[in-house]
Structures are given as structure tokens and as C-alpha cells.
Amino acid sequence: MLYALRLGRLFALVVGCVGGLVFGLGYGTAHIGDRQVFDLFAEQQVYLSGTVREDPTLTLSGQLSVQLNELAYEDRKLPGALLVTVGSATPVKRGDVLFIDGVFSEGFGSYVGSMKRAKVEKVVHPEPGDVGRRVRDWFAELVRDEVPDPQASLGIGFLTGQKSALPNDLSESLRIVGLTHIVVASGYNLTILVRISRRLFIRVSKYLSALSSGTMIVVFMAVTGLSPSMVRAGLVSGLSLLTWYYGHSFHPLVLLPFAAMITVMAQPSYAWGDLGWQLSFAAFAGVMIVAPLLQRYFFGDKEPGIIRQILGETVAAHIVTIPLIALSFGTVSNVAIFANLLVVPFVPIAMLVTFLVGAWSLTQLPFVELLAVPTEWLLAYMTNVATFLSELSWAQHDIAIEPWWWLVYVAAVALACSWMQRATGYSFRQSNPVV
Question: Could you report the per-residue pLDDT of 339-389, keeping only the tens digit for each?
């Protein structure tokens, strides 16, 4: 790569890419080799421990699905993450340490293995434990004291990215209509908070604006947890904020691979086995690359309003993520664009009023109902939209296409983007998620 940078020629770039590919394959192979220790556990009764990585979720069968990392077996540390299901009554939260006994099954995706209906021998609640999760849960209870569920859970999901508290039926409705991205910890939630923080303090000083926005990124990541999509969002927002502060900007075709490189260096299995990581980068590529090209090609230099911007970003993200969704789930949402237009414009308002309800409840001032009631109405409107659209018989359809056709599709999208960029002369350095 140093040789490629020095010469600055196409041949040198090819040499650098080949060198990077060889290094990446070697690193990934070594990572897979480290995971071969789990072959000894195949279909065996195993007793081990691990730390809960993300918020447990309730499955359709009534079990808790828990992701464990920092695995240990007989005082021996093990690599990777394990997916287990345990009884729904198990008092487990993110950051707890579980000691479990169960039959070890083959892994999938980025998981080294799985255990179904594992027996929980012991749950350890370390002190202080996951401070961000504790603060989030404490604040969520303040909101729930004033706003009923599922509206309260939806508002908390907007504000902190906590999807696990949503009822299964509402979570499924959001998935069908393509609105899951507004609830899960993702770049969308973080971008809203960072933009608000940056624009609020820029009137005071650029330094204070960058400092407050950087603090917002760190706090939000601490509250939501380090899921693959959240790591991506934090990295992209942090790098974009840093370059903005020094008067520069990242080209999306540099920023996205650079952020991907950092995350894959930490966990190589993200690249080939974590759908959330793949969808996160694909959707963000759509927003950063495809959306501005569509806006410039069809509408010229005129800055888009909120509706046109949401429409463009939704269509772009939909275009880019269709292959991954279709190959993984075999279905595609037909109402995603319409649902996003009806709901997404109100998300910043919902985040604000949900925060104000919790803050007002904390101060114990009277008349909190004056804010809680319209907050409930707004969140109820959103849940009703998702539920109504998801119940339509044509809300989604099955799709089965040979994988190689999707390669043709991706090539066609890339060629279309190249054509629009040449036709409009658009500079991608204008795309900054924190501005």
C-alpha cells in the first residue's frame, strides 16, 4: 500500500488492493482457525460462562434470546460470540455474566455456536456493570410512568435504540413495513442527535460544537451498547465530525471502506456472517452515495426539503439493501417507502417529546400530563401506521432469484451511479452525515 501511495498510479493501486486482499484472507483464516476449538464441543453437554453482549430479546416461542461474548470454559478464555435461548423468567440484562449448561450446537453467521433452552446455573450482576444500560433503564421507567406501552417502548426505542422492549407484534409490524431502522440502535438515531448538538452549540464556538457532538456519540454508544450497526454508526459519525472540525471532508468511497476496515480488524466475522453489519453499511452507502446522486440528477442544485430528502434517502437505501434482504429473508416490503414518508418526519419530534416527558417526570413538577398526552398521541399514530400497513395483504411479497442475478443488479446500480455522477458533476465531498 505504501508503494501504491507513493506512485499514485492505477497499477500501483491494483498492487495495493491485492496486498490488502491477501492480508485480509490470511487474517480471516487465522480467525477461523481460532474458532476450531469449538469443534470439540459439537453436540456435547457443555458448562461455560459468558457476558451478555446486547439486550436479550423475546422469541416467538417465549424464550429469551441472549448473545454472549467473553466466553470461558474451565477457566480458559474462548473467542467469538455464542447465541443461547433461556427461560423468559431469567433475570438477565446486558452486561450480566451467565453461567449456563446445555447442548452445544453448530454456529451460524458470526456466532461460534448456539445453545437452545440452556439451563442457567447462575447469573452474576457485576458492579457497577453496564452503567449506560442502567441509566437507560432508569430513564425508561420515568417515561413509562407517564406514557403507556407500547407507545412508551417505541419512544424509548427512538431515543436510545432499545428494540428489545417492543412487543413482538409491533416489532414484526415494523419489520414488514421497513421501519425497523428507526428503532434499533443505528446511524439514523445517532445522526439526529449529533446534528442537533452540533447546530445548537455552533453559535457559541466550533470547538464547543465538536466537543458536545463527540460527547453525544460516546454517550449514545454507551447507552445503546456496541452492536455491529452501532459501531459502524459511531465510527462514521466520529470520523465525519473530526474532518468537519478541521475544515475537511471524507469522500464516502473512502469513509465507508475505512470504517469497515476498522470494524473487521476487530471482528473479521462481521464481513461474512453478520447481516446487521452488512445492512448497516449498505444502507449508509445508499444514503451517502445513491441518494444525493438521485437528488442532483432529477432536481438539480435545489436543496431538497424534508419530504424530498426522506423520500430520496428511503428509495436509495431500499435500492442498495434489496439484494441482502431478499437473499436473507426471501421477502421484500412493498410499503417501505410509503411507511417511511408517513413516520420518519415525526421521529425527531418524538425523540424530543419523549426526552422531555422523562426529564419533566424526574423533576416531579406538576402538569406533566400536558406533555405526556400529546406524546402518547404522536407515538400512537406511528404504531397505528405500522400496524395498519403491515396487515395489508400486499405489504410484502416473496422473492426468489438466483444469486448471480443480484450481481448483475449490483453492477447495474453501480453503472447508473457512475452515469449520474458524470452527468451532474456532483462532488461527494458535499455528503457529510453530521452537517
Answer: 888 888 888 888 888 888 888 888 777 777 888 899 999 999 999 999 999
- Closest-CA residue to 38 (of 52, 28, 48, 29): 48
Q: Strand ranges (DSSP E) for 105-157?
A: 105-106, 111-115, 119-124
The 3-state DSSP class for residue 44 equals: coil
| Residue 345 CA: distances (Å) to CA of 306, 350, 378 | 7, 10, 12
Distance CA 45, CA 78 (A): 17
Here the cell at position 383 is 404504531
Give the position of cell 460527547. 215
Per DSSP, 345 falls in state G
Measuring CA to CA, how many Å separate 48 from each of 32, 97, 304? 21, 11, 54
Cα pseudo-dihedral 69, 74, 78, 81, rounded to 10: -30
How far from 54 is each of 267, 309, 340, CA to CA, in Å?
16, 32, 26
Identify the band that residue 33 occupies on the pLDDT scale cut at 50, 70 and 90.
confident
Query: Percentage of the chain surpassing pLDDT 90?
Result: 11
Burial pattern 19-43, b for ≥16 Cβ within 10 A else e, equals eeeeeeeeeeeeeeeebeebeebee
Q: Which amino acid is at 189?
A: N
Distance CA 194, CA 191 (A): 5
- What does residue 423 show for φ and ψ, rounded to 5 degrees? -70, -35
pLDDT at 64: 87
Which residue type sits at 423?
A: A
Element (H, E) at 139: helix 131-144
Q: Which three cell numbers stand for residue 219?
A: 454517550
What does each C-alpha distance from 6 to 178, 254, 255, 360 come to in angstroms? 45, 18, 21, 58
Residue 217: Cβ within 10 Å count: 20
Rg (alpha carbons) of the chain, rounded to whole number: 23
Name the grid cell of 99: 453461567
Range of weakest confidence among 3-7, 101-105, 390-394: 3-7
| Cα of 287 vs its chain's centroid, Å | 14
Residue 288 is given by DSSP the state I
**Residue environment code for 167-196, b if the CB has 16+ CB neighbours within 10 A, otherwise e:** eeebbbbbbbbbbbbbbbbbbbbbbbbbbb
Percent of the chain whose pLDDT exceeds 70: 95
Residues 433, 435: Cα–Cα separation, whole Å: 6
